[in-house]
Design a protein that fits this description.
Elements: H1 4-12, H2 21-31, E1 37-40, E2 46-50, E3 57-63, E4 68-74, E5 79-85, E6 97-101, E7 105-111, H3 120-124, E8 133-135, H4 140-146, E9 152-155, E10 160-162, E11 165-168, H5 171-186, E12 195-201, H6 209-218, E13 222-230, E14 250-255, H7 263-275, E15 280-284, H8 291-297, E16 304-312, E17 320-323, H9 324-339
Parallel strand pairs: 3-12, 3-13, 13-16, 14-15
Antiparallel strand pairs: 1-2, 2-12, 4-5, 4-9, 5-8, 6-7, 6-9, 7-8, 10-11, 11-17, 14-16
Helix pairs in contact: 1-5, 5-9, 6-8
Bound molecules: zinc ion.
C-alpha cells in the first residue's frame, strides 16, 4: 500500500529552502522514467511533464523544501549562530540535533542557557530563536575549514513506523513529494485528459516563492496543491479546533490563510472522492499559506485551484506524524482528479 523505503528516503534527504539540489536530484532519479519530459526551471523547481489529450494544463505542486536554518556567524569558541528559513516555534528547538551542510555534513546540537543558571524571570519566559546556538564539538579553526556563513542547516531525525502511522522530520512536505512520485508512477502509460505538470517546488517555507515563478512559467488552467495540514486530534484541543483527524482520510482544502479554493474544484474533488469510495474530510485552515495561493493567483487570469491536504500531527516539529491510509487515500484522490478532469463542467455558476 505504501512504499516505506521510498517514503523513508524521501524524508531523510536534505533540502533547505534555496538549497534543494540534493532532494531534487533524488526525485529526478525516481520520476524520470515515468514522464515525457523532466526539466528544472531557473529558480530550481523540478517540472515533470506528461502530455495529455486536450490543450488544457493542470499543474500539481508539492514543495520539496523543508524548514531549515542558515549559518550567520561562527564565534571564536566555535559556536554557530543562525537565522531560520521558515516558521519555527522556538520551544521545539530545545535539545535537537541538526546537520550543517558545508564541504561535508556535520552534526550539531542546539544549545541554550541551562535552566540551573537562569534567573526566575528568564525561566518564566518562553525561549526565543535568538537564545539558541549550535555546538558542533569542533574548535573554531577546524569548523571554519568545513562550514562558512551561508551554509544551510537541516534537522536530524530518523524515520520510524508507529502503529498505522509514520513519524519523521520533514513529513512536511516530503509526504506530498512521495504522493506525487507515486501518482506519476501509477499513471504511467494511461491516457491523460490534460497536460500534467507535476512540479516539485522550491522555497515554499519562506513564502511560496518557487510556486509563484513556476506558475508564471507554466500558466496552468487548473491547479492542485499537495501539502500537509494540521491534525489537532490530540488531548486538550476542543472539537471545533481540530481542523482534521489522523486516520479519517485525505483532506479536501476549502480555505487556508492565503487561499479560498475554487468552489468548482472543491465540488469536483468531493464528487471524485465519493465516486471512488475514497475517505475524505474537509479542511478549513484559519492560518498558514500554501502553494495553492501562488498557483491560483499567478496564472494569467487565475487558475481553477484547490488542494489535497494530508492530516499531520506535530507540524513543524521533528516528530511529524501521518497515517498510512490517509496517504494512500491522497494518492487515490489525486489520480482520480487527474483522470476525470475533462468530464466535468467547469463553467461558472
Ligand atoms: Zn508544507
Amino acid at each position: 500500500m505504501i512504499d516505506i523505503d521510498l517514503l523513508k528516503d524521501t524524508t531523510q534527504i536534505p533540502g533547505a529552502p534555496g538549497y534543494e539540489y540534493r532532494i531534487r536530484g533524488f526525485i529526478k532519479e525516481k520520476v524520470g522514467s515515468f514522464v515525457d519530459e523532466l526539466k528544472t526551471d531557473p529558480m530550481g523547481n523540478l517540472i515533470a511533464f506528461r502530455k495529455g489529450n486536450s490543450g488544457k494544463k493542470l499543474m500539481v505542486a508539492a514543495h520539496m523544501d523543508e524548514i531549515s536554518f542558515i549559518v550567520s556567524h561562527i564565534d571564536d569558541d566555535g559556536f554557530v549562530k543562525f537565522q531560520p528559513l521558515g516558521g519555527f516555534d522556538a520551544k521545539t528547538l530545545t535539545a535537537q540535533r541538526v546537520i550543517i551542510h558545508g564541504k561535508e555534513d556535520i552534526i550539531g546540537v542546539m544549545g541554550c542557557k541551562p535552566i540551573h543558571i537562569m534567573t526566575a524571570e528568564e525561566r518564566a519566559k518562553p525561549p526565543k530563536i535568538q537564545d539558541f546556538y549550535i555546538d558542533t564539538g569542533y574548535k573554531a579553526e577546524q569548523l571554519r575549514e568545513i562550514i562558512s556563513i551561508g551554509s544551510p542547516i537541516t534537522r536530524e531525525r530518523s524515520f520510524i513506523e508507529m502503529g498505522d502511522n509514520v513519524n519523521s522530520k520533514s513529513i512536511d512536505n516530503r509526504i506530498s513529494v512521495y504522493i506525487l512520485i507515486e501518482a506519476l508512477k501509477e499513471l504511467e502509460g494511461q491516457e491523460l485528459p490534460v497536460d500534467v505538470y507535476g512540479v516539485f517546488t522550491v522555497q515554499e517555507e519562506v513564502g511560496l516563492r518557487g510556486a509563484t515563478a513556476a506558475t508564471m512559467g507554466i500558466d496552468p488552467d487548473f491547479a492542485i496543491n499537495l501539502d500537509v495540514t494540521l491534525a489537532c486530534d490530540v488531548p486538550g484541543i476542543a472539537g471545533h479546533e481540530r481542523i482534521t483527524d489522523l486516520g479519517k482520510g485525505t483532506a479536501i482544502k476549502i480555505i487556508d490563510g492565503r487561499t479560498i479554493c475554487d468552489y468548482r474544484m472543491v465540488e469536483y474533488m468531493k464528487e471524485r472522492a465519493a465516486k471512488g469510495n475514497i475517505k475524505y474530510q474537509l479542511e478549513v485552515l484559519p492560518k498558514g499559506g500554501t502553494d495553492t495561493a501562488s498557483m491560483q493567483q499567478f496564472a494569467s487570469g487565475g487558475s481553477i485551484a484547490g488542494g489535497i491536504s494530508i492530516p499531520c500531527r506535530y507540524l513543524h516539529q521533528v516528530i511529524e506524524m501521518v497515517n498510512k491510509q490517509d496517504v494512500r487515500a491522497s494518492i487515490d484522490l489525486l489520480k482520480a482528479c487527474i483522470l476525470s478532469l475533462g468530464e466535468y463542467n467547469w463553467e461558472h455558476k
